[in-house]
Write a structure and sequence with these properties.
Layout: H1 13-23, H2 28-33, H3 37-45, E1 54-58, E2 73-77, E3 84-87, H4 95-106, H5 111-114, E4 126-130, E5 142-148, E6 151-159, E7 168-172, E8 182-183, H6 198-208, E9 214-222, E10 225-232, E11 242-243, H7 246-253
Helix pairs in contact: 1-7
Length: about 260
Amino acid sequence: MGKKLNLNDPQTFNEKLQWLKLYDRNPLYTRLVDKYEVRKYIAETIGEQYLIPLLGVWNSFDEIDFERLPNQFVLKCTHDSGGLVICKDKSKLDLKQARRKINHCIKKNYFYNTREWPYKNVKPRIIAEQFIKDDIDDDLKDYKLICFNGEVKCTFVCTNRHTGAGLHMTFYDNDWRVMPFERHYPKESVPIRRPAHFEKMKEIAEQLSSRMALVRIDFYEVKGKLYFGEVTFYPGSGFEEFTPDSYDYLLGSWINLSKVHQTT
């Protein structure tokens, strides 16, 4: 990012994420970043009603029996970020391309890209989940609540991820007011409607983030139903710039590292 990293006295959000990669080694984190194992944790902690229905789990692409899958589904690698195939019509699915993408992702250890240690020992598997879509809005919004020492302080919404406009990220405070900054990606020019389950999202996120210095809990809201998305400990891996830069310091000030039990 063109800046000298200060690990002795980190101040910014991005600096503190690098510090957390090195010193916050709670073994629970490996389970929570595993897209299959986290489902069990969510079911045990807040209830399986918040889970997107699971259609199958496999160790390799060639184990998948596509005849038994519905017409629409989503394939996800359990051990990385971005290893997914969205199928909206099985008759049009390019199996050769899907196999190439999944096989490429399943051979990679995500840890070595950004040193996000929780991913290092995740067992590479493939899951299929039900394809979810809101009939009112084709753009499935991804609500990402950032928790600082167990408290939700801000939320950002990902939109246009799979459109020609490209990914947009818009930050909101806890009263659903747009926050005046951007982080790497542009924000939407028109405010996004507050989700109906926003208060429930905050309640669940704070329950799941208890005793964690920094974690992001993701949700979807589809057809009036709330779904858990995923858990992320290092948003943007701590390599996404803020505009203006002062918000890198503001969000950094919300992370209290003194409560972290350091391990090396």
